[in-house]
Amino acid sequence: MENIVKVEFLKLKRYSVIKAGIIMTTLSPLLSLFYSTASGGQSWTFEYFMQQVMTSNCTLFFQIIITLIAGYIITREYTDDTIKNLLTIPIPYKQLLSSKLLVLLLLTIYFSFIGCVIALVINIIAGFPGVGFGNIINMFIHIIGANIFVYIAVLPIILLFCCSVNNFLGGVALAFVYGYFGTFEGTLLNYYPIKASMILMDSNCSAEYGYTYRIFPALIVLLFILLISGIILAGKKKETSVLTITKKKKTARKKGW
């Protein structure tokens, strides 16, 4: 599997999807900065700003980034017609898919780290108080951890939709709606995977709305999602009809005048 992961990273150098992921990662702290200028009566500090960045990541951006890149790196084997070469080595399809999911996890950490650095720079420029070494380390842990949990939360969508060229954009749209519902508040949201991703890294999230969330139910929900994802992956098989290419028929040229 190590060799497959190395090859996947080499292939990613040729794709522009990584640049797109970095751009989308930058949008999250920029949106949080916009909220800080539009919000009246709220005292913005470094800690509060980073909490808003984490919320934007989990509910608006990161589930889309993960799902989009997953669909791209998985279905690229079909659009480039390289899947048949990989499977004749032979590499079991489940092992190939597991390697791509591992690459996606590493990319999640990579994008999260870049997002934290960008958010830190924006915070320094904006001049929000409370910046300290301990707070910076805490911010990196919380944001990266929350994004990893978002990765777990969207795994079923990736496995069900992003393994097919014809369906993966629908999976991206579903991931957007899936994340958007995480912006809602309520006791039942304790059992919602996207909300659980934020709760596990910050049990005081949404405290300003009068809600208190619990860590244990959030942990159970994400473990259940991980189990479901494992079951789906175990039953995953290569679909020969995953991509249908229609070839145009050449019209025979008439002879004579």
Q: Quick one: overall form?
A: globular
Stretches with pLDDT under 50, minimum 5 residues: 240-249
Q: Helix segment count? A: 9
Helix fraction by DSSP (H/I, runs of at least 4):
55-70%
Strand content range:
under 5%
The major sheet is characterized as: none
| Rg, Å, rounded | 21 Å
* Mean pLDDT reading: 83
Descriptive tags:
mainly alpha, globular, 0% strand, 9 helices, 257 residues, 69% helix
Topology:
Blueprint: H1 2-12, H2 17-38, H3 46-79, H4 83-87, H5 93-126, H6 133-161, H7 168-180, H8 193-201, H9 215-234
Helix pairs in contact: 1-5, 2-3, 2-5, 3-5, 3-6, 3-7, 3-8, 5-6, 6-7, 6-8, 6-9, 8-9
3D architecture notes:
This protein is mainly alpha-helical and 257 residues long. It has one domain. The chain has helices spanning 2-12, 17-38, 46-79, 83-87, 93-126, 133-161, 168-180, 193-201, 215-234.
In brief:
With 257 residues, the protein is mostly helical. It contains nine helices and no strands.
